[in-house]
Write a structure and sequence with these properties.
The structure is a homodimer.
Chain A: H1 2-24, H2 33-51, H3 56-69, H4 75-78, H5 85-103, H6 105-117, H7 121-136, H8 142-160, H9 174-191, H10 199-210, H11 216-241, H12 250-263, H13 268-285, H14 287-290, H15 294-307, H16 313-317, H17 320-342, H18 344-355, H19 361-374, H20 382-399, H21 404-417, H22 428-433, H23 440-469
Chain lengths: ~475, ~475
């Protein structure tokens, strides 16, 4: 207890020191003292959400309060992010994931795929991956997708084959499935604007820094080709080099049949949810045709679910994880926006870019992207990584002359793919790791191999695809 | 089940019909079609939160979504209320009430007062009333105050005297206490800007409609004299005409002593909370001196409670009632603001005021206030009452020439006092009524007598006091 509290004190010291360091730096010409205070608070908030003397979301709320308290922002401005439509898009999507779990539709989709293609181990893996992919098209809660829908099935099937974490039977099936599902999860995260919660913050930062609008459809269309290649290559790599002992899984089909029988006939609530789900995703993909705002579409879906009682009012207020994301995301969006308004990021990028002058943009971009990617070893969440590094890295790469269209896509996708490196890389990582099927060394080795493959695929296949699309 | 669902359908029909009626009225000159659509949605939202096909908060969220969906407001505007600083003030205050219950400080304050002056029944009542009054200085959650702190003690002491709801012993003590506490609760609600959640919306409406800023200190200073008179008169009236059989309650003191012993020495968390509580209220009352924003003060208090671990992060996200209030309050604030911007309210008031032209403002004001007050028989919450009636009534009374300072205070306080009429008048009403100690007839009779006394006190004592303060 004593050491725990001492540790916490050290963490607070680091947070406060990080703010003080900024405060002590002389304010550059053209920047106001208030803007510089905002930078100090922003830095401390980011440092705080990495070292975590309190949980990351709490650090953001404290940061928001600090901006108002120290006069860096007016309180009306500091709270501005909570009316941001993208923040509400995420909130709505979390409510949607609640419906997916509550009605059992997510589970049913997974079981249907298992029944269809789960007779072989690799097929079983793909059944779950396809489900995860479909759900990610509108559900950014990776915790809900993995913990609520995919993992329970993977685990049950593993146990059907008497593959358990602690008695030497993990290698029969469980280890393979967990490695497979997690490494594919980060690819799926990268595939949709709704792949995980901080993708909207990535899009937001990019819009504010580079003026490029990564809409739902731009994000998805750009990702789909490298994503499909990765989703084919990575599972085959794992199957080849870290194969399961059990190669055929007829029990999985039996299991799926039993579970589907238990679920019974499709309930009206599931039918409604499925219709709403298809409607939302359909409207999102066709936004350029009808022009209805993405948030309005999502909220309309929630309205339908409330009217049809698929969601009760209590489901919304009790979705505490949604409110947690709401607090940190709304706070960060506004802080980053206000910081961008001050012009500080621009000055920083210009001075750093001065060092790399003379480098070709190809070399500079490659170098900076690799640093950006492998920096994720030091981060326990995509959000922390993105908020700390994306804006300055984007500014610097643009300043050295890299094509904007190319740079923003690589940064956006790498932010997600890099989470595969460690067993703490993003929310579902500890959920999969926590099952005990995968040892850390094994996780990190596969994570590293997958990272190299992903970087190659997303760079070369990506570059080609985006050239065809005309993005650069 | 069938009838229940038929009932719900009828309610939806009423909601939709109310919107259609507005839509079918020809749009007055100078008002845009979008503004008129907003009015239709606002009316349907208010009607919906009265007839409640879904719970009131859900109706407001649906209203917000509808404004964006039907093009009455841009989504960015429709969500604007969620960045409103008063909405966040309420949110912060709810977190404060969580701390008050979690640490046991609220309970301890009540028990100390009971030990001090609880030897006689009337003193016992006052001990609880004083506690409620003190808490209301910063805790707008009437449910938390009544349900979490005051009622449990009143109930326990009643049971100590074997006064129970159902075995003919209610009249010994319980009936008296419940009547007393609830009738004083509505007076306490009227005494502070933080007395109950919709007081901030009242202040907001008044600021937007009449340009008068009912700050925390203006609200409190204006209320304190009539409030104290009411808190003396109403208990004495109940004690005189509906006396408890038991007049002395030494057991209450014994009970308080026992409970305080169980609570043990004051915990550090309680000391910190008490300090924060005093700091917040002190800073709120002295805002004119230092000028720090009320919301910043409240959020600063929450930051201190987080830093000192009096509140854990989970306490915030799990406070689902706070999030419920956040959704409805943020939605309504923006809808009412946007409606004010359209100029519709002004046109309405001018045309109604045309009918009352020739009336003296005294007569017109008195008549309108009485209608406003007793209209509460038809409302199940102060919020519904206020959102439906305050803006038009304020506009009309001002249009007939009533002094603005006087009018806004009477409307603000009457909005609270009128909740004493029924056993469903405001949140804590069903909590007290639910104990079973008070029969409906008894409740309504006392409620009516108290309403007459309160109207007389707040009109005449109020008028005099506000004249002294120079408000009119």
């Amino acid at each position: 207890m004593k050491t725990e509290s001492t540790k916490t004190w050290w963490r607070w010291l680091i947070v406060v020191a990080s703010a003080l360091v900024v405060v002590l730096i002389p304010v550059p010409a053209g920047i106001t003292r208030e803007s510089w205070t905002l930078l100090a608070i922003f830095v401390a908030t980011i440092v705080g959400s990495i070292v975590q003397p309190l949980t990351g979301s709490a650090m953001v709320l404290l940061g928001v309060i600090a901006t108002a308290l120290f006069g860096a922002l007016k309180i009306e401005t500091a709270l501005g992010g909570y009316a941001d439509k993208y923040v509400w898009l995420v909130l709505a999507a979390f409510f949607l994931s609640r419906a997916m779990i509550k009605t059992g539709l997510g589970q049913r989709i997974a079981l249907v795929f298992v029944r269809l293609i789960g007779r072989k181990t690799l097929g079983l893996g793909y059944a779950l991956i396809i489900t995860d992919f479909l759900l990610a098209s509108s559900i950014p809660s990776t915790g809900a997708r993995s913990g609520g829908i995919i993992l329970p099935i993977a685990r049950s099937v593993s146990e059907t084959y008497e593959s358990r974490p602690d008695d030497g039977t993990a290698g029969k099936l469980g280890t393979f499935l967990m490695n497979l599902l997690y490494q594919c999860e980060v690819i799926i995260c990268a595939s949709f604007l709704t792949g995980q919660a901080s993708n909207v913050i990535i899009a937001d930062f990019i819009k504010k820094s580079a003026g490029i609008d990564l809409t739902y459809s731009v994000w998805f269309v750009s990702a789909i080709v490298p994503s499909v290649v990765s989703l084919i290559v990575i599972p085959l790599m794992i199957y080849r080099f870290y194969p399961p002992e059990i190669k055929e899984t007829p029990n999985a089909v039996k299991f799926a049949n039993n579970e589907l029988k238990k679920l019974g006939a499709t309930k009206p609530s599931e039918m409604i949810l499925l219709a709403v789900f298809i409607l939302i995703v359909g409207l999102w993909i066709t936004i350029t045709l009808h022009g209805i705002d993405a948030t309005v579409i999502a909220l309309f879906g929630i309205a339908v679910l409330l009217l049809t009682k698929v969601l009760e009012w209590r489901d919304l207020t009790d979705e505490t994880h949604a409110w947690e994301v709401f607090i940190w995301y709304g706070g960060l969006v506004q802080m980053a926006k206000s910081l961008g308004d001050t012009g500080i990021t621009k000055i920083f990028a210009e001075s750093v870019a001065g060092y790399t002058s003379g480098w070709s943009w190809v070399f500079a971009l490659g170098f900076l992207l690799l640093v950006y990617f492998y920096a994720h070893y030091a981060f326990a969440s995509i959000t922390a990584h993105v908020t700390a590094m994306l804006i300055p890295f984007l500014a610097v790469t643009l300043a050295v002359g890299a094509p904007a269209g190319l740079t923003v896509l690589l940064l956006a996708y790498f932010s997600n793919l890099s989470a595969g490196l460690t067993h703490y890389g993003t929310t579902p990582a500890p959920i999969y790791f926590g099952t005990g099927y995968v040892k850390q060394k094994n996780w990190w080795t596969i994570g590293f191999i997958a990272s190299v493959l992903n970087i190659l695929i997303w760079t070369f296949v990506g570059l080609l695809w985006w050239k065809i699309l005309g993005w650069w």
